[in-house]
Design brief:
Elements: H1 2-21, E1 28-31, E2 34-38, H2 54-76, E3 81-91, E4 95-97, E5 107-109, E6 117-126, E7 129-139, H3 156-170
Keywords: Signal
Protein name: DUF3016 domain-containing protein
InterPro entries: DUF3016 (IPR021557)
């Protein structure tokens, strides 16, 4: 009887730890003038990690993109304005390929036939009043072309696509 109680306690503590490690269904990230709701990331087209624990990779992806968008949005928005986004799909640049035992992890292969894509709705608020709103499906088919820096910043293609969108779509409307 004592062994059964210990086993039950062990199972319950393991399941509680597992539940605590799971990411929220719709995580929210905020940085400065930007707030992003990541709607059902488990349904996103491609945010697969190549070697990191998936939940940590997603958290790093969400925080990095939010921080990078905020840097540009702070330049574009007026002091009493805020950008709120609900991202419904992400397809990172490149494609995950298995290594079939050559390494412990899959590899993300970046080629121009695998462009970054992001689908989202947004609103720009001024004093908590919506002044601009819309839906976007961004794809950067030319992400490999042009002059590129020798940067290895994480998620640089997705960041560039979103900052271009801010400059070309939001800035002219303000």
């Amino acid at each position: 009887m004592k062994i059964q109680s210990l086993l039950l306690a062990g199972v319950l503590s393991c399941s509680a730890a597992w539940a605590a490690d799971e990411a929220p269904v719709n995580p929210v990230t905020e940085d400065g003038v930007v707030k992003i709701v990541w709607q059902s990331p488990k349904d996103f087209r491609d945010i697969k990690s190549s070697g990191e624990i998936q939940s940590r990779y997603e958290k790093r992806l969400f925080e990095t993109l939010t921080e990078n968008i905020n840097k540009e949005a702070a330049k574009v928005l007026k002091p009493n304005q805020k950008l709120e986004m609900t991202i419904t799909d992400v397809d990172l640049a490149g494609d995950m390929r298995p290594t079939f035992g050559a390494t412990a992890n899959d590899l993300r292969i970046i080629k121009d036939i695998y462009p970054p894509r992001i689908t989202f709705s947004y609103q720009v608020l001024e004093n908590d009043k919506v002044i601009i709103a819309g839906d976007e499906k961004l794809t950067d088919m030319g992400f490999m072309g042009g002059i590129q820096s020798l940067s290895d910043k994480p998620f640089m293609y997705e960041t560039k696509m979103l900052t271009d969108w801010l400059k070309k779509t939001i800035a002219p409307q303000l």
